[in-house]
Amino acid sequence: MNCYVLYTIPASLYSGKARSYMRKRHIDYVERSVGDPRFGQHVLPQLGRFIMPVLQTPDGALIQDTVDIIDHFEQTAPAELSAYPAGPKQRVVAHLLEMFGGEGQDPQDELRTIFGESRLEALLDARPRRRMIRRENREAWGAPQGPVLAR
Questions:
Q1: pTM, whole model, 2 decimals?
Q2: CATH number belonging to the domain at 4-76, selected among 3.90.960.10, 3.40.30.10, 1.10.150.120, 3.40.50.300
Q3: Taking all residues of the chain, what is their mean pLDDT, rounded to a whole number?
């Protein structure tokens, strides 16, 4: 094999993220569906589970998960413009946003890990209560409950 092979599901957002990164970095690769027989014959037995996207490197190594694929290229072939911010604080925030938005993680689980249970409860208790106030105002004013449609 002379180039990278990216095994994907074409409509997958995770696959799209890896595909987009590789295109923008001008990385030569061949995209194959996870339905390709080579995926079932060679990739699945090595991984031991179904996951995608999976990148097969020219030397045959397998890298699974979008973030790991991007990190692989960021570390082995740094670009002039990185996918991640340069500052350490900005990089942490970028990774947190990626976990919450891109990886489908529950933000409270991640914040609980970072801050601890008691600190997380204090942070959540400090949030504005706009929704509750609006709901109370609707009840007090006799406004209809639920969404109000414009006519």
A1: 0.63
A2: 3.40.30.10
A3: 76
> Other C-beta atoms within 10 Å of 99: how many?
16
Q: Which residue has the tokens 């994907």?
A: 8
**Measured between alpha carbons, how far is 136 from 116 in angstroms, rounded to an integer?**
32
Q: Which run of H or of E encompasses 7?
A: strand 4-8
pLDDT (tens digit per residue) in 89-134 = 888 887 777 766 665 555 556 556 656 666 656 555 555 444 444 4
Which residue reads 């942490």 in tokens? 92
Distance of CA 30 to the CA centre of its chain: 22
d(C-alpha 40, C-alpha 127), whole Å: 48
- Least trusted range by pLDDT, from 19-23, 32-36, 71-75, 101-105: 101-105
| Secondary structure element (H or E) that encloses residue 76, with its range | helix 66-76
DSSP-assigned letter for residue 100: I
